[in-house]
Every structure is written in structure tokens, then in C-alpha cells.
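$ run holo --ligand "zinc ion" --emit C-alpha cells
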Amino acid sequence: MIRVTCLGGAGSVTGSNYLIESPSGKKVLVDCGLFQGGRQMETRNWADWGFIPSEINTLFLTHAHIDHSGRIPKLVKDGFRGKIITSPPTAELCEIMLLDSAHIQEMDAEWQTRKNRRQSKGEILPLYTTADAEESLKLFFPVERDRIIDVEPGVRARLRNAGHILGSSILELWVEAADGEVKVVFSGDLGKHNQLIVKDPHEIFAADYLFIESTYGNRLHRSFEDSKKELLDAIEYAVSNGEKVIIPAFAVERTQEILYVLGEFYRNGDLPEIPIYLDSPLAIKATQIFRKNKKYYDQEAMAIVNQGFDPFDMPTLRFTPNTKESIAINEAAGSAVIIAGNGMCTAGRIKHHLKHNLWRPGASIIMVGFQAMGTTGRKIVEGAKSVKIFRENVAVKARVYTIGGFSAHADQKDLLDWVYNFRESHPRVFVVHGESDSSEALADKIQKEFNLEVNIPGWKERLVLKPKELLREAASIGEEPVNILQISLNMIVDLEKELDRLKKRLKSKEEKVSEDDIDRLKYIQEELQAIHS
Ligand SMILES: [Zn+2]
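-- output --
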């Protein structure tokens, strides 16, 4: 039997991290993402790993998004020295993503420290530094997809195209157990059918166990043609008013999809002749990586290349990596399209562009990505009359367009179509990487439509996998109620250990006690209250 512990991306959409233990004691990880969204969730980034990083020889990385890759520098800082097996484009994208993430961690810690000083409190250290990120980049071991590789004795693996972002992969994993080999498939994040730039997700037919994401497990996307039309309408609206079009965008994939569609408008003669600025150093670097990796394009993107065009270019496109050029954009009168990060308007250059344009009637703000609760982006989408930017209340007078069709995630139908292929091999299915409504809706559909056994594992839940058979550790009586009880008991054990460690540290006179300890205590208290309710 083998064990899989869901250490992130279970019961949430961020922090993806799964530990797989073989009977011979081999331990491998799948993904090592950052927990994002709210203080309580982010506290998990600082918590114990649930394993000893130096004991792990292999980390499989499905794709470059930070909720799958963003804790790698911390893993390396904490002792991991193994191989990070991933696709070549993912390795390239991680180089820019992890350095950017380290920079954000350093800036946050610096800001927090400055704030603390004013209150006579101590220094806050970043989760990891640029040096940690640079160290982790040395451990990347890119492998082409579709080839079976021997990872370590008794463990083989193959990456398959997941069709989500450039280089994104599904992982097929074969682990030798005493009573036979177990095949586990991790979907990673799956792309939608006919997604731009990348090929559709690889169809897989056999697995003993399947871990499938459920980000949009309860939703169907609107038609992409409608979304493209809306994008053009939004541009035409601002242009007819002589105003600007602001697009808050995520640096990897979403930005390139917007450029791709703008390129299509241009080639069809539909795009008004106005400057288009890509005003994000990270997105500029990502676009250059997309341009380089043509062999991973789908047929449509390749057809554009074969006609002699760059899918991400048009004559009026300008890259503005320098701050000076960025500031100049807002000083220039007249219409322009400005694509800037970050996607949820919480940091980065987009804040300057919103400050200059949000209050202008006739301008367009185009939201093309998910806006998390509490973010400036979410407030704008929900129709706030004004939002706070750089401590200033800025009126929302521009027209706000929310365009849903640019998602890089499979919707419920795409997910079910992909699972359909497994029906003959009859795997046990674990639905992960989703808010509970999405996971439950998808689990229900998979169970009813394909008659497969489906579970939704919780955070830190440990699963025992046997060839074609599943036993939840210590769960011998009954089904669901025992499962919930077991999860709660496991959590209490973890919390007791954590409390014990803290108690020892607080009592020992030699050990320095920091703000972090209070944060941890608060977190434990919240977790306990959650169990109690
Ligand atoms: Zn992703």
C-alpha cells in the first residue's frame, strides 16, 4: 500500500501539496504551492510541512502558477535538495515567477517591519528571500512530457499536457507496492476545451486512483465568442470617448490570451488604431517565454505563426518595462489599451492606472480574471461607487466590464468529459483543489454519471491506497460520519503537537519569542473554534 497525504490544495484552491509515501519508504511530492487569500490561510505557509524536506528526493511540479509552485523556495530553505521534475516551459516560467514571489515576500516583510517599529515591535523575516529562490532554481530538472521516467526505485512517472497554461502537466505516477503496482493520476489544473495557445488536455484512460481539480466544478463558462465580442465592445466604448481601456491582468497565460485575441482583432481589421501597452515587467518576461516555446502551441496558434505572424504582437503594441515609461502612459492624452498587473488590483502598476482612469466617465475597466473576496478588483466588480487606492477614495465612473470567458480552467462539462475516459479502468476518485460547493457538485456528478467511488479529502487527510482498493487509515467502521470524525481527530492531534512545541518554546528562556508565535497561537485558536462549532 502507498500513502497520500493532502497537505495543500485539499479543501481549498491554493497551497497545492501532496506527499506520496511508498512501502519501501520513498517519499515524493506533487506540487508545492503558496497558500493565498486571507491571513488565516496564509499562516499555513509558515506551518510545519508535515514531513522533513531533506528526506524528499523528488518533487513533481504540474505548472508554474504560484498556488502550485510558490513554496518551493521555502522547501529548499528548509532542507530540500532533491530534483524538481517538471516540463521545460514550467521551469522557464518558474524562474521569473519565483524570483518575483521572493521579491514580494521581501517587500511585505519590510513593510511589516517598518509598521512594527512604529509600535516598538520586532523585525519580520520574509517567508523566503531572493537568494532562496535562486537556490531552488538550481534544482529544476526539466523533462519532456509523454515519456515514462524512472524516478527512484519503485517509482515511475510521466507528465502529460494539461492544457491549462504553457507547460502545464498532468502527472501519471506508478508506485510499486507489496501487492502490486498502484497508478495514481494527478490532474493538476486542467484547461478548458479549445483554450487559446495551448493544446487540449491529454486524454488518459487508466488509473487506480485519480486526483482531480474542481476549481470550476459547479460552473459552466460562457461562450468564448461572446467574451471576445464583449472585449471589443469595451475597447470601442473607450475609444469613442477618447478615453483609456484598463485591463488588470495576471502575468502568465491570461495576459498572453488577451494579446492573442487583440492580435486576432488586428489581423481581422477590427482593432482601432490605438497604442496598446503591456505595462508589467513580469508579464513582458512571460510573453517572451511564450514566444520562445512555439513547439507547445496548439494548431490554431501554429497556423498564425505559419502565416508569418507572431500571435502575441500587433504594430501598436508597446512593452513598458521601466517605471519612467509606465508613468508616461498616463501623461499621454487620448485612447490606449493598458494591460497591467496585478490581476486583482491589490498591488503593482495597475493601481496607478486605476487612480488615473477609474473616475473618468467614458473609460473602460475590463476584468478578465477571478477577483477574490476583499480585493479592490472584487469591489469594482461588485459595483462599489468608490474604492480606496493609495489611501485616496477614487470614484468609479468608468464603465466596468466583467468578462468570464478568459478562464484557463476547465468548467464542469470539460472536467466530466475528461473523467469519462477513465470509466473502463474504474478508479477511485478524489476531488481536490476547489471550494466546497465546487468540489461537492463535481463529486456528485462523477459519482452519478460514471458510478465511480468519489471522496473529497480534507486538508492534512492521509489516504491509504492499495491496488484497486482504498482504506482510510483507522477508518474501519462505516463511511462519511467516521471520516469526518477521523479528520477532526487527526487535526486535534496535530494541534496538540503544535501547542506542545509552542509551550516548550515560550517556557524556555534561551529561545526568542516572536510575533509569529502569537500569530500561530491565534491560528490554533481559530482552528479549535472551527472544530468546536
Ligand atoms: Zn493554475
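-- notes --
The first helix runs from residue 39 to 43.
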